[in-house]
Specification:
- By secondary structure, the protein is α+β, with helices and mostly antiparallel strands.
- The protein is built from 15 helices and 17 strands.
- The chain has a 15-stranded mixed beta sheet that branches. Strands 12-13 form a two-stranded antiparallel ribbon.
- Helix 5 runs parallel beside helix 8.
- The longest helix has 20 residues.
Length: about 425
């Protein structure tokens, strides 16, 4: 059943009850103040958590010109992992399955065929056992592993999901690292943000992250991955399609001495205001904002040491994982790209080991700008990896049915499961 017009209008009229607060012009002006006064560097409690690597600047590049320029890296590889999402069964098991795949341009069919599959299993029954040894399938092209998650008081589904996803991704990346000769683009952040967020936002999971070998092993995989690529002088980056960091906005909100009222929900909203270009023009209902769409805009690179980026910063502890390079080499650095065609912002992350070199920094920047310009969104190599790793909805349903047979236990379904199963995909 759809909304009747009278009901739609009644709901829409609620907007008139809401005062917008500061108008859009003032918000744009405040964004400029933040850019000019707070980011070089941004400090909290006497510690620098964000600072430019080079000159702080906002830049633009013609979209068509950057699309047609010579490629900075002759070959490019992408990596992604997909899951079926956590599934609970009536025997108490909570399971998720992830598979990781790597894409290549030009195509490499043997590489595309390979998969790393991880099943994570949780149960409060401590007698439950899991054979955690690695096994091979598909004539040796792929390998798989099941991992037992110890009893947890809360966040069970999140832990099961994150460990499956990041263990599959990091293992596959390390197994096929030598196939990458020019540039690797991870679909997502440089480090396992989902795991690192536990200790940053959920102190009751910090002990699990510190004491259990499984998440520590996952984080170590990413640290070793960085070391492998630094040793071979092959850059790797993480392309974050939906950046939701709040390091900048949270820090600004905490500056009581500056009396700042921050209107943005996260850092992306602020950077979007800073990078969106256009003018106010006359319209039917007064002035309206008209966006310039012929260019891509982007920032300089920043070093990030706050929030979930802190453990891998030069003064972080990396949760006890040994770092074989100088600690600064692992620091998260990033720049953001704004694509006005869809009003979307992307964050590109890389280890400081690569971005401290001006030439490498410029080459990576131009390559990712070209990728976004050509693909009209995330790089094609990332979409290619996503297609290889994705587990489609019908396949998820079939896998869950197969697990029901193997466990001799039905899925623990809710009414919402029943309701949405009937919806077309």
């Amino acid at each position: 059943m759809t909304l009747d017009p009278v009901h739609f209008d009644g709901i829409a009229r609620l907007a008139k009850r809401i005062g917008h607060g500061t108008d859009e012009r003032d918000r744009r002006a405040f964004a400029e103040t933040v850019w000019e006064s707070f980011l070089d560097p941004l400090a909290q409690d006497g510690r620098t958590i964000l600072e430019p690597i080079d000159e702080q600047a906002r830049r633009v590049v013609d979209r068509e010109a950057v699309a047609l320029r010579r490629r900075e890296f002759p070959t490019e590889h992408g990596l992604d992992a997909g899951t079926i999402n956590p599934t609970a069964f009536k025997n108490g098991l909570v399971v998720d399955i992830a598979q990781a795949a790597m894409s290549a341009t030009p195509s490499d069919l043997d590489l595309h065929r390979s998969r790393t599959t991880v099943m994570t299993v949780h149960s409060n029954d401590e007698t439950m056992t899991v054979d955690e040894t690695w096994g091979k399938f598909d004539e040796g092209y792929s390998r798989s592993r099941a991992v037992k998650i110890p009893p947890l008081p809360r966040f069970v589904e999140g832990v099961v999901h994150a460990l499956a996803l990041y263990l599959a991704e990091s293992t596959h990346a390390r197994d096929h690292a030598m196939a990458v000769t020019d540039l690797l683009v991870l679909d997502g952040p440089l480090y396992p943000r989902g795991l690192l967020r536990w200790a940053d936002q959920h102190p009751d999971l910090a002990d699990f992250l510190l004491d259990d070998p499984r998440p520590t092993t996952v984080l170590e995989n990413y640290v070793r991955l960085v070391e492998d690529f630094v040793e071979r002088d092959v850059p790797l980056v993480g392309f974050v399609k939906n950046p939701t960091t709040r390091v900048l906005t949270r820090t600004l909100q905490s500056k009581r001495d500056a009396d700042i009222s921050v209107p943005w929900s996260d850092d992306s909203a602020l950077f979007t205001r800073l990078l969106e270009r256009g003018d106010y023009v006359d319209g039917v209902d007064g002035e309206r904002w008209e966006r310039e769409t012929s260019t891509l805009s982007y920032t300089n690179w920043f070093r990030s040491r706050g929030g979930v980026d802190r453990p891998l910063s030069s003064d972080g502890d990396a949760y006890g994982v040994e770092r074989r390079l100088e600690h600064a080499a692992y620091e998260v650095t990033f720049f953001v790209i704004y694509d006005p065609r869809d009003d979307l912002l992307y964050r590109v992350e890389a280890p400081y080991a690569f971005t401290r070199d001006p030439d490498t920094r410029e080459r990576v920047t131009m390559q990712l700008l070209q990728d976004v310009a050509v693909a009209h969104g995330p790089p094609t190599i990332v979409g290619k990896a996503d297609e290889l790793a994705r587990i489609a909805s019908p396949e998820k349903a079939s896998l869950r049915e197969t697990l029901e047979d193997r466990f001799d236990a039905a899925q623990d379904r809710t009414y919402d499961d029943h309701r949405w199963d009937e919806q077309p995909y």
